[in-house]
Amino acid sequence: MDLTTVWFLLIAVLFTGYFILEGFDFGVGALLPVLGRDDRERRVMINTIGPVWDGNEVWLITAGGAMFAAFPEWYATLFSGFYLPLLLILLALIIRGVAFEYRHKRPEPTWKRRWDTAITIGSITPAILWGIAFANILRGVPLDADHEYTGGLLDLLHPYALLGGLTTAALFLTHGALFTALKTTGDIRHRATTLATRLGTAAALLTIPFLTWTLTIRTSPLATALAATATLTLLAALAATHARREGWAFTGTATTIALTVATLFAALFPNVLPSTTDPAGTLTTTNAASTPYTLEIMTWVAAIFTPVVLAYQGWTYWVFRRRIGTHHIPTH
Amino acid sequence: MDALDVARWQFGVTTVYHFLFVPLTIGLSVLVAILQTLWHRTGNDRYLTLTKFYGKLFLINFAMGIVTGIVQEFQFGMNWSDYSRFVGDIFGAPLAIEALVAFFLESTFLGLWIFGWDRLPKRIHLATIWAAALGSTFSAYFILAANSWMQNPVGYRINPDTGRAELTDFVAVLTNKVALITFPHTIAGCFLVAGSLIVAVALFHLIRNPHHHDTPTYRFAARFGAWTTLAATAGVLITGDIQGKIMTDVQPMKMAAAEGLYTTETPAAFSVLTIGTLDGSRELYALKIPYLLSFLGTGDPHGTVQGINDLQAQYTAQYGPGSYTPIIPVTYWSFRMMIGFGLAAAAIALWVLWAHRKGRTPTGKWLLRAGLVMPLLPLAANSFGWIFTEMGRQPWIVFGEMLTRDGVSRSVSLTEVLTSFTAFTLVYATLAVIEVRLLIRYAKAGLPDTTHDPTPHDHTDDPDRPLAFAY
Fold first, then answer.
1. At what angle are helices B45-79 and B81-97 packed, to 10 degrees?
2. Phi/psi of residue A46, each to 5°?
3. What are the transmembrane regions (chain B) (predicted)?
4. Peptide bond before B395: cis, by omega within 30 degrees of 0?
5. Residues 268-307, chain A, touching B (beta carbon < 8 A)
6. Which of A106, A125, A192, A286 is a Cys-bridge partner for A92, taking CB atoms 3.0 to 4.6 Å apart?
7. Sorting pLDDT into bands at 50, 70 and 90, what band is B375?
8. What is the pLDDT of residues A115-131, one digit of tens each?
9. If you measure CA to CA, which chain A residue comes closest to B91?
10. Which among A52, A76, A293 is the nearest to B84, CB-wise?
11. B279: closest CA of chain A, how far (Å)
């Protein structure tokens, strides 16, 4: 396989990992005011993701770095073209990350309430904006022959992209509710499962039309197969949620997120950012890529370190596998 | 004002701000790891208390370092997309490796350290803080390798068809002589900050409340921090000296600008103070130490150091008409501020050690004041060091290959850059106030009572026991 294809796949894998992992911590953060009825319950929720959210976010940093190294043209065009949405994502991630660390540092309820708001806004904003961004990548954006973005902010906010934003938000909220159900005990666990059923229904009502619409814009036999499987796993996740099988349901949403991202990348290939105006502007795995030498070095580094990273991240989830309830939260 | 100016200001502000937190993260992670190792080896609870106390300050700071770091990575694509296109083949690789090899290690193991006090065996728990510290240090190496390539591009060729820089030798990029010396210099600067913070906090409690039962612990901390600061100062000076020689070799204009040396001199004198014309083309008055600059720049008191005007003429001949001179007052003064602030911190560290001699406990409001100012000095030194190194490279973004003005994003409007600049500055300013207040609050609160805390040693399996650490 061509190294450019390998790197296209690796970047797809990195974003898939990012959306599965940060997807649930976005969901938990966004549902904080809904599922956490008092400070103690909100602390339970935050602590379910406490040891891992930071490591989850590194998947994004790695995906960004890998894009820069393997497809600099893609990185440059995308990040300068999607300027304002990315700015909002960055601001959201900043206040959210600080909020996790700072909310328990002072006892005043006002202090905690403000950081809770920061967590909620900081979680829901990227959950929506990532969907908008990826829908735009798939559909393509106005690019000139130099691969420069020629559109404005409004060119990014068309109905398909907005549906994409709602889809990722609904998927991540469902995923987060199920993670909460999986990691907590008591009242909060029951409420999370009940909410997951409703959110999952909404997610299905958004994801299925979004995937269908995606296939009408750009498709391949593989993309069609992936989208069909994504639909099935989502329905299976819904059934498992209904049956209160939290583990299976969470596996189901994780698989659905993975397959949805995979559908987008499969439909996109071999393009990485199509141009809707000048066809010469379209970025592909070939014209956006680094030299074979750089890709070769990067492949070696990835081959050696990815298994190591997966092993210790997996171990972290094992170490913190226990469910948490309100009685586990220390008073100070 | 155009998008280029704002993009440059944004880069400067976000980078300097980010680098207020990074050195403390790198330095404190290792110092906290050392404290925990001391506890592990001796079983003395004093070290456990200090581990937890400084660990808390470390975490308050760490949160800011990580969130401001994401902006740094995305900023290249957002504001400097033409730069990213030009150097992506080379510059992207260390960034990606930094994330894969360093950030995962740092964030994952820090999560394990924070939440793992009662979940992990003692030895493994100790290993997690060392792994996190190792991750922070690795990340410094890779990002400095990337930056050093901008200072002294190596291991590449320019593709005549695309006009882009292409990697030809990755080992050369990682062993760039600028990177090899910038790395220890920067790390030493990190310990200068971390050591100073430890001193400041300990001194505050010692002088305010000398008869407290925690006094012996604070005495240890103050001396530990002061020795760290002094060792770091030695490291900064030795590496800085070597760095000066390499800089004279690969970026002679930066050395000339650092000194305000307008004409080539053999031997060259070190200027303690130079006052030049406002346009920076001529010196009006200078106080000089003979032979010193030749020695600093070349290792030989009679060596030749090239001057700004001669280099400007040489570059014009080489690269075509234009100004190849950085803003002299900025480089000249930032260079002196870097050295001056760093040495001031070392002087206070010496004073602190003197005040501790023969079992004494320090007193005196002047020492207290100096101690409280102390952490700000290396922070300022670090910031001026970066301002010097980046401004000294101007007008190049990649020395000799790409001008800064050619690296900016063409598709990004002034409004967009202004929006992000304003947004980042406001958010950063707000968070800075919050963080400093929290640091002071927790520093003032003093040593925690760890007698009832679960430690990695008492590993009970009661599933209903409260968490040792919770957000």
1. 150
2. -60, -35
3. 20-41, 53-71, 91-115, 127-150, 186-208, 220-238, 333-354, 366-388, 408-434
4. yes
5. 290-291, 293-294, 297-298, 301-302, 305-306
6. A125
7. very high
8. 999 999 999 999 999 99
9. A69
10. A76
11. 35
Q: Give A102's contacts in chain B (Cβ within 8 Å).
A: 60, 63, 434, 438
Asked whether the whole model's pTM tops 0.90, one would answer yes
What letter represents residue A263's amino acid?
T
pLDDT at B38: 94
Phi and psi torsions of B166, nearest 5°: -125, 140
Q: Residues A55-110: pLDDT tens digits? A: 999 999 999 999 999 999 999 999 999 999 999 999 999 999 999 999 988 989 99
- Inform me whether the C-beta atom of residue A46 falls under 8 Å from chain B C-beta atoms: yes
Please report, for residues A109, B12, B243, B323, the alpha-carbon distance to residue B19 in angstroms, rounded to integers and kept in the order given.
Answer: 32, 10, 20, 29
Cα B72 to Cα A239: distance, rounded to the nearest angstrom: 43
Which residues in chain A (181-210) have CB-CB distances under 8 A to chain B?
none
Tokens of B418: 């202004």
Q: Supply A225's token pair.
A: 């197969």
Computed on alpha carbons and rounded to an integer, the radius of gyration of chain B in Å comes to 24
Query: In the 8-state DSSP scheme, what is residue A184?
Result: B
Cβ of B67 within 8 Å of Cβ of A76? The answer is no
- CA of A217: how far to CAs of A130, A283, A285, B275, in Å? 19, 17, 19, 66
Cβ(A179)–Cβ(A52) under 8 Å? no
Calpha distance B459→B51 (Å, rounded): 19
CB pairs under 8 A between A and B: 240
CA distance linking residue B124 with residue A64, whole number of Å = 31
What is the ipTM metric for this complex? 0.91
Residues ≥6 apart with Cβ < 8 Å to A194: none
CA distance B15 to B428: 11
CA atoms within a 13 Å half-sphere pointing along the CA-CB vector of B79: 28
Of B78, B88, B95, the CB nearest to A290: B88
Max CA-CA distance within chain B? 77
Is there a contact between B103 and A306 (Cβ–Cβ < 8 Å)? no
Cα gap A73→A286, rounded to integer Å: 10
Q: Give A80 to chain B, closest Cα distance, Å.
A: 4
- On chain B, the residues whose CB falls within 8 A of the CB of A106 are 438, 441
Write the CB contacts of B180 (distance below 8 Å, at least 6 apart in sequence).
none
Q: What is the pLDDT of residues B114-161, one digit of tens each?
A: 998 888 999 999 999 999 999 999 999 999 999 999 999 999 999 998
User: What Cα–Cα distance (Å) separates residue A223 from each residue in A74, A86, A261, A269, B343?
Assistant: 21, 27, 10, 10, 62
> Which of A42, A13, A211, A8 has its CA nearest to residue A116?
A42
Query: Does the pLDDT of residue B459 top 60, yes or no?
Result: no
Residue B267 preceded by cis peptide, ω within 30:
yes
Rg (CA), chain A: 20
Q: What type of residue sits at position B441?
A: R
**CB burial of residue B254 (10 Å; 0-12, 13-18, 19+):** buried
Residue B272 contacts residue B228 (beta carbons within 8 Å)? no
